[in-house]
Amino acid sequence: MPTATVSLRCRDIALAALGSLLPPGTAASTDEARFLHEALAQAGGGLWPQQLTQALALPAAADEALARATALLNLSQVEILAVALTAAVEDDAVTGRMLAWLQAPTAGARPTLALLARALAPLQQQPDDAQQAEADTLYALAFGPAVRSGLLLLDDEGRPLCERSLRVAAPIAAALAGVSADWLGSRVRAVQAEAALAESVPALRAAADRWAVSLAATPQATLAMRSASAAEARGMAAAIIERLGAQPAWFDDQLPAGADVWLMLSGRVPVFALQAAPGELAAVPSLPGYDGPVLVTTGLDGGICREGAAVADWRIPAPDPATRRALWRAALGDTELAAAAAARYRAGVAQISEHARLAQLLAAGQPSLQTIAEAASMTSAGRALEALAQALPEVVPDGALVVNETVSAELERALQRCAQRERLHAGLGEAARTRACDGVRMLFTGLSGTGKSLAGQWLAARLGLPIYRVDLAAMLSKWIGDTEKNLAELLGRAEHADVVLLFDEADTLFGKRTEIATANDRFANAQTNYLLQRIESHAGIVVLTSNSRNRFDPAFVRRLDFIIDFSAPDAQARRALWQAHLGEASSCDQQQLNRLAALADLAGGNIRNAVLAAAASAQAGGRRLSFDDIAAGVRGEYRKLGRTAPPGL
C-alpha cells in the first residue's frame, strides 16, 4: 500500500476519512461518490495517523497556518482534520456538495458532529466497542480546544449535539488559506491619512519608533494611548503597528469568539477602542490564544487594565508652537498666516488639517484668520460637543459690551492671560512650572442682566475661538457617577476642539460641600470633589457665571484664575447702555437719553428687553422709535421685576 507524501494536505486526509464511510463496492455513479473515491485513492488507504504526522512535520504551504494553530492550541489529530475539512467548505463548493450528499436529507453543507465522529473515530485510541469510539470522538470534538478557542464554532443551538454542525469563521478560513482579511464585524478603518498626520510630526515619529521597540521586546505588551482626539490615537496606533511590520485589527470593547486565534494566524495586531468613566477601569478583552502586543485607544479619564499583563499609559502630546506653525504652513502654504493661526489655535494634528481644509473651502482657496475662525466652529471636534453644550455663534463686538472701567480692566487682563497661556510658564521658577496647566478658569459674578454671559462671548470673539454654553440639564444625572462621566467627556472634547466653555449658573455644579448626614450627601460631596479636581487640570478656557460668589465652595475659589464682579451699572454706564442698544433708530435727544439713564435703574439685560419691546410697538404703529415707546417698555420691565416705575417715566 502506498504511503502519503509530504505534499499531501490535511484536507485530503480528512476527505479520505470520509471516503472510508462508503460501503465496500459502492460505485462511483455520482460526482460526489467519484470525488470521495478519488480522495481515498490519493491518500493511499487508511494509515491516517502516520500520514497526518508527516503532513504536519513538513507541512505544505497551504497547511502552514493550520500547523501553527495546532502547536498553539495543542489540537488532537481528530480536531486537525475536523478544522481542515470544515475550512474547506468555505472555499470549495465541491466539498460542500459532497458533505450535503453524505448528510442528506437532514443536514446541510457543513459537517455535523455525528458525521465527523463516524469518519474520524479510527484516529482515537479507541475501545473495542465502535459505538463507544464514535461517542468519545464526538465529545472530544464538541468540548476540545478547537471549539473552546473559537477556532471551530458549533451551530444549530437547541438541536441534539450529534446533529449540530461545525463551521469556521470566514476570516479564520481565509487565514488558514493564507489570505489576509479583516474580521467580520470589526471596525474596518481607513487610517492612512491619520497615520500620515502622525508621521508629519517629528515628536510623534520618535514616539512611534520608541514604542514599537518596546512592544516588540516585551511579551504581551499593552499600550494605552490617551487622547481627546480618536483620530490622532488611531493614527499613532497605525504608525506603531507599521513599524512592527504588521497590520492593525480594529475592535471596540468586545472580541468575537475565535478572533484571538485569527489574530495569531493572520499576524494582525489588535487595537481596542475603550472608554472608562472617571474612577472606572475598562478591561481589555481576554486574548487566551494571542501573545502579541495589544494597543488601546482611549480618552483622558478612567483606567485601562488587562488581566495578567501590565499596561503602559501614554498621553499623546499636543504639538508645540513650532510644530503647529510647520503644520499650518504645510496646510495653507502661507508662512505669515500659519504663524498667526498657530499662535491663536492650540489645535492638534488632525484638527489643524481639518481646520485648514474647511478654511480653504470657505475662502475659495484664499483663507484668512476670519475663515479659519469660521472653520473652527464647524469642525467635527466642535460638533462632538453639541450633545452636552450649545454653540453660541454670535460674535460680540467691543461696542456691544458696556461695563465699568474696573470690569473692563479685569477683562483685558483675562484676555492677556488667555492669549499667553501656552508660554506663560516659560522662564519662571520651578515652583511656578510644577503642576503647570495651560487652562484659564474665571468666574463672573453679579446680578442677572449685568453682562456676565455677554462678556464670555466677547472674550471668545477677541480670542477668535468658538464658545459653547454648557447644557446643565444634559450634564446632571441622578445616577451615581454619570455627572462626572459627562463632565469628563465634555472637558476632554473641549480641550481637543480648543473652545471656550461657558457654564451659566455654575453654582449648580460647583456649589458648596455639605455636612455628611446621609448617603446622598456623601455621593454629592464626592461629585463636587471630582469636579473641583477635574476643572483644575482642564487645559482650556472656562468661564463660569453666577449671581453670587458665596455659593461656591471655598476650595474652588483657589482654583480660579480670575473672579470678576459685574456690579449694577451706574447712571453713566446706563446711558452708554441705552445708546448702545438704541443706536440711530430712535428719535430721542440727549436730554431724553440722560433722563432714561438717571431714572431707570435697570441692568443691561432689562434695558435690552425694554428696547426690543419699544421697537416692536413702534414698528406695529409704523413710526420711528420714540421716547414714549421706550418709556412704555421700561414700565413693562419694572412690572416684571415687581417694582414701581419711576414717576418721571
Automatic annotation (TrEMBL):
Instruction: Using the record for this protein, list the coiled-coil segments as residue ranges, or answer none.
Output: none
Q: By its UniProt entry, which SMART domains does this protein fall under?
A: AAA
Keyword terms of this UniProt record: ATP-binding, Nucleotide-binding
What InterPro entries does this protein's entry cite?
26S_Proteasome_ATPase (IPR050221), AAA+_ATPase (IPR003593), ATPase_AAA_core (IPR003959), P-loop_NTPase (IPR027417)
Q: Which CDD domains match?
A: RecA-like_protease (cd19481)
Enumerate the spans annotated as AAA+ ATPase domain.
Answer: 438-570
Instruction: Identify this protein by name.
Output: ATPase family protein associated with various cellular activities (AAA)
Instruction: Tell me the organism's taxonomic lineage.
Output: Bacteria, Pseudomonadati, Pseudomonadota, Betaproteobacteria, Burkholderiales
